[in-house]
Design a protein that fits this description.
223 residues, alpha/beta, TIM Barrel, four-stranded parallel sheet, globular
């Protein structure tokens, strides 16, 4: 088990499963106790006063089931959100975007450098699935993002490349560039779209996305 700390939270990685989860300091101490073969009673005594006993016990049970797989190879699916078995690869297709949002972490303003071709994406998809998707009990997804992924002229072919390789596809998009003729194909492919909506009013959304963005988006979501 490997743990990486940032701002009081821990990214715990189990590369042999493969699996990862994020916990606070209490969750990290619970995981450490389990690996030290401490019982649930001993763990509650160690953490007495730091958290509610019911929360410690619930976390212990969830992590015990997950960490048990580390030792015996038993791939048991756990339904708790803390230990949800889904692996997602984030793939940035382009730095281009049709909007100029001040918070954009990639500073997406125009073409910068070369973008991968469809053939290159197909090779990545095949290789990624071969090396990553090794456990039939896990769900493997790719999230296609940018910039704005629909700025890429070959976006539908790229989506198909990852679907053909065996991945579920999700996308982070402002949706404003999606063509009507592509909507049916996106639905057929089972692509899940995460659409940016920054507030319930025109003023709040347009403050971030630019004037007129709210009307364009609401017209698409509620035609």
């Amino acid at each position: 088990m490997r743990a990486y700390e940032r701002s009081g939270e821990f990214l715990v990685v189990l590369p042999e499963l493969p699996q990862w989860f994020i916990v606070d300091g209490i969750g990290k101490e619970v995981a450490d106790a389990i690996l030290q073969k401490k019982s649930i009673r001993e763990t509650c005594l160690i953490l007495n006063g730091k958290a509610k006993q019911a929360d410690i016990k619930a976390t212990y049970r969830d992590l015990k089931m997950l960490l048990a797989n580390r030792d015996n190879g038993n791939d048991r699916r756990i339904s708790s959100p803390l230990t949800s078995k889904a692996t997602v690869a984030m793939i940035s297709l382009t730095r281009r975007c049709n909007l100029r949002c001040p918070h954009c972490y990639v500073d997406a303003q125009g073409m910068r450098g070369k973008e991968l071709t469809v053939s290159e994406h197909r090779a990545i998809a095949d290789n990624l699935h071969k090396r990553l998707a090794t456990n039939p009990l896990l769900e493997y997804k790719v999230n296609l993002t940018g910039g704005e992924p629909f700025c890429h002229p070959m976006i539908m072919d790229i989506i198909s490349a990852y679907k053909d390789a065996g991945f579920e596809v999700t996308m982070s998009t402002n949706s404003l560039l999606i063509k009507k003729r592509d909507m049916a194909k996106l639905a057929d492919l089972g692509v899940a779209l995460s659409v940016s909506l920054d507030g319930a009013t025109e003023g709040s959304h347009d403050f971030i996305r630019g004037k007129g963005a709210f009307k364009k988006l609401s017209g698409r979501l509620c035609p």
